[in-house]
Write a structure and sequence with these properties.
6 strands; alpha+beta; 25% helix; Aspartate Aminotransferase, domain 1
Length: 197
């Protein structure tokens, strides 16, 4: 049996390339940009999504447009996670609701929390995986994902060397059988912030 996630690779990143190395590679030499210090970032309007059929689109929060997790406040409990998920625009909300329902069905004694602007899940001995809405997708990341079989294909930026996961652009991208198996595997060992067994 193969997972629908096997074989996917993430595109190489330009992170780490300096402006001078990019100039050298392209032969371009751009003049220094002048900045107007009188313009404040608060004057910028948030980006909006356009709907295909002229319906009013739900605007994405600035944090989702920039690729950062949401500004949701840290709080432990089901209520805070449900509020976080409800705050997401579609299709991210539908994907996050499906992941949450799958976690509840798969893991008895599931505990929820909002941390670092994302929903975190565990079963009493630490947080084992998280789910967060971003522009165009939902990230489902597993703490110590390198130990999972098969290893999830996405290596997130700034979430730890051993974290792995998947990026879901639609509910149809969610391979429930594979994700449920990963959830069981990752919760079999202590998570982040929990007591060692």
């Amino acid at each position: 049996m193969t997972s629908r996630y096997s074989g996917r690779r993430t595109a190489p990143s330009l992170i780490g390339k300096t402006l001078s190395s990019m100039k050298h590679a392209t032969g371009d030499h751009m003049p220094a940009r002048k900045t107007d210090k009188s313009v404040k970032s608060a004057d910028r309007k948030p980006a909006k999504r356009t709907a295909a059929e002229g319906k009013a689109a739900t605007p994405l929060r600035d944090s989702m447009v920039t690729g950062k997790a949401s500004p949701a406040k840290a709080a432990v409990g089901d209520k805070s996670v449900f509020a976080y998920i409800a705050s997401l625009p579609q299709p991210q909300r539908g994907i996050a609701e499906r992941v949450d329902a799958l976690a509840a069905k798969t893991l008895p004694g599931l505990q929820r929390s909002v941390k670092w602007g994302m929903s975190y899940y565990g079963i009493g001995d630490g947080w084992c995986f998280c789910c967060g809405g971003f522009a165009g997708h939902v990230k489902l990341m597993f703490v110590n994902g390198v130990a999972l079989k098969p290893v999830p294909p996405v290596t997130p930026v700034a979430m730890g060397k051993s974290t792995r996961g998947v990026e879901l652009k639609s509910v149809e991208d969610l391979d429930e059988r594979q994700v449920a198996e990963w959830m069981k595997q990752v919760t079999a060992v202590p998570g982040v912030g929990g007591k060692k067994r």
